[in-house]
Amino acid sequence: MDRPLRVAALASGRGSNLAALVAARDAGRLPVEFTLVGSDKKLAGALAVAAAAGIPTVALNPKDYATRAEFDSALFGRVADSGADLLVLAGYMRIVDAAVVAPWEGRAINVHPSLLPKYRGLHTHRRCLEAGDREHGASVHFVTAELDGGPVVAQARIPVHPGDTEDDLAARLLVEEHKLLPAVVGAIASGRLRWQGGPLFDGAPLTRPLSLADL
Question: Which residues are noted in the entry as (6R)-10-formyltetrahydrofolate-binding (predicted)?
Fold first, then answer.
């Protein structure tokens, strides 16, 4: 590609993973151009992060649409109109209609706070502690219609310490997410990680999740 990778992001919360991507770009470690940051919440912190970085933003209210599919179609339409090559779900907390996701196969990734396939969905830190796991982590995967079910491309792992709370795990894991997501986007931007009917890394089918050391 003879230009920077064009990246759009969707986020529902404070935008810390988006901020990590912007910081990596500003430090010269991530050769991308941000085309849009969208949200389902007009007061999402991610929109303020984007505005401060000069990235166009859009917020749509799901209640303004008759169905989930209509809302998803409208928001993803804005993403498509921005010219994005890659869509990053960076703390986007809505399940997306399968028909809306389908055209983005191989062009959308999500960061999820668990070692997938463990603990899809919400409350991952709590579920990790309740299960007595000795290890926790974050995963970046390609997005499919299945909730948190697309091919996992990279993971970061942390130990679970005796006495850890949900907040303890969340705080320690977020540090790793902020490294992992920019590294994966960077691998896509460089062409090392790409989609050809499934994830390829350095030209070979991906047989296991990558680590930060691999990236």
Answer: 68, 93-96, 110
- What local confidence, expressed as pLDDT, does residue 196 receive? 96
Specify whether the CB–CB gap between 169 and 136 falls below 8 A: yes
Which one of 112, 125, 136, 141 is the catalytic residue?
112
177 and 201 belong to one structural domain:
yes
pTM: 0.96
Catalytic residue list contains 112: yes
Q: Binding site annotation covers 91?
A: no
6 labelled as ligand-binding? no
Domain enclosing residue 90, as ranges? 1-104
The total number of structural domains that make up the chain: 2
Provide the percentage of residues in the chain whose pLDDT is more than 70: 100
Which tokens sit at 74? 């409208």
Task: Return the percent helix, strand and coil in the chain, to nearest 5.
Answer: 35, 25, 40
Q: Which residue has the tokens 């970061």?
A: 156
